Structures are given as C-alpha cells and as structure tokens.
Amino acid sequence: MRITLFFLLFIFHSSAQDIESVKMSSKLFNYEVFWGNDLSGNNYFSTSNNLYKINKKVTLNYSNNAFGKISSVETFNLLQTLIFYKENNAFVLLDAQFNEIKSTIFSEINCEFLKPASQNELWFYDSISQQIGLYNLNSKKIKFLSNPIKNITFSQSDYNYLYWIDTEKNCFSISKFGKIISLGKIAPYEKVFFISPNEGFYLFENKMYYYTFKNELSTRININEKLIYNFCYSDGFFSIFTDYQLVTYQIKK
C-alpha cells in the first residue's frame, strides 16, 4: 500500500526529505533534438543542423553549416549559448538574441567536448594530451588542469565544476583549481543529469531515476511518459522530451 501511494503521488526519496514531482504542462514540438532550457524558460531544439530558441513570444533560429554537424549545445547560461562542432574542432557563441558573438576553430588542442565555465572560460577535454583544461575566451589562453584521463563517456558542467563518467561508470568532478574528487559509481544509464556533486537524475530503459552518490541509491520516479529521448533539470523544473512532445514537471521540496 505504501509503495502504491508513493508512485501515485510521484514522490521519490532523497537522503533528507521527500520530493514531489507534479506534471505542469505538455506541448508538441516538431523538432528532432531537444538540447535543454534556461532559467528564463527558453527551450532549445534542432532539426537538420538548424538550432532554435523558443519561448511563448518568439522563435529564434541559428544555422552554420561551415562547421559541420552540431555535436552539443549548452544552454544553462541564458545570455550565451555555446554550440560545439566536434567534426571541425570548433565552437560558436550566441548572445541572448541568437546573434553570433564569437566563433573559433582550435589549432592547439583537439576537443572531445567543450562545456561552459565561469569568468569567460570553457571546460575542454583534449584528446591528444588526454587532459582536462580551461580555455579563456578573452585571452584565448589554454590552461591544463589534470593529468591524462582515459575512457570518458559522459561530461557535464556548471560554472564551478566539470563532471564526467568513465567506461566503468565511475563519476568524478574537477574544480577550476584542478582538484579532482571521486563521486562514486552510478547505476547503468542512458542519459544523466548532475544536479550537484552529490545527486542527479538518470534515464535507463525508458524509466527515470533520482540518484544519490553518497549511498549509491537509485529511486524510481513514476513518470508516465513513453519513448523518452532526453531530459534536463533547471531551477526546480524537470523537462522531458518524448516523441515530439516536451513535458514539464515541477519539483516541490
């Protein structure tokens, strides 16, 4: 009976308190890829290498076929959107109106991934040296922070940390001062979203889970969505992209 009530209320347990997820909205979007959203409620999609920023009032569009296929789009900084083109070792920065403000093709490093950091810097992983570092957008200087690291399969950043997972599902974080911390292991996953060095969400076999690294505890989130392609978490809202549909849940503590 307790388990049934738990799922009906969409409640999952953290180490300190219960958290309830409430379905807020569902809207059709005819795009191929959902990249995420920002604190202003803008949603970012792409189709055929065209990137779209969408809110209730306007739809902005950016396209750059000179750099090849879009590899990743970083959206949590609402003033700057970072587009990475791994094929050509290049990136583009867009302002809030989707105007191009900077584009660079790297020559000194070969980026496997590129993520935003604070103070006009970008996290990178150089496949040649196998090192993590920071690239300064103003000075264009490169600073390596780590010893060689192998077998990175997933990465994510916030302003202060870069997170990654290796092939053995070991999770780590690195600070802008180069301090690396082992966070522990994560369960089998298909998509991951780090909330902090202590907790996150992951998707596996079309089911969503909340995860705490300290005790390696996975808790099922009873979300009745099928064919989940991507998801993200921002400022208390959980966004899930299904088959051309974006569903939003509010997380209430």
Structure overview:
The chain has 253 residues and is mostly beta strands. Helices cover 3% and strands 54% of the residues. It is built from one helix and 25 strands. The radius of gyration is 18 Å and the shape is globular. The model is unreliable at 1-17 (pLDDT under 50).
List keywords for this structure.
253 residues, mainly beta, four-stranded antiparallel sheet, 1 helix, 54% strand, globular, disordered N terminus
Strand content: over 45%
Spatial shape: globular
Characterize the quaternary organization of these chains.
single chain
Report the radius of gyration as a whole number of Å: 18 Å
Low-confidence residue ranges: 1-17
**Total number of β-strand segments?**
25
Largest sheet: 5 strands, antiparallel
What class, by secondary structure content? Answer: mainly beta
Strand order of the largest sheet: 1-2-25-24-23
The total of helices stands at 1
Q: Mean pLDDT score, rounded?
A: 89
For the terminal residues, how far apart are their CA atoms? 23 Å
Helix content: under 10%
Give helix and strand order, one letter per element, not per position. Answer: HEEEEEEEEEEEEEEEEEEEEEEEEE
SSE layout and pairing:
Layout: H1 2-8, E1 11-13, E2 18-28, E3 33-37, E4 43-47, E5 50-54, E6 59-63, E7 72-74, E8 81-85, E9 90-94, E10 100-105, E11 111-116, E12 121-126, E13 131-136, E14 142-144, E15 152-157, E16 161-166, E17 170-175, E18 180-185, E19 191-194, E20 199-204, E21 207-212, E22 217-221, E23 230-234, E24 237-241, E25 245-252
Antiparallel strand pairs: 1-2, 2-25, 3-4, 4-5, 5-6, 7-8, 8-9, 9-10, 11-12, 12-13, 13-14, 15-16, 16-17, 17-18, 19-20, 20-21, 21-22, 23-24, 24-25
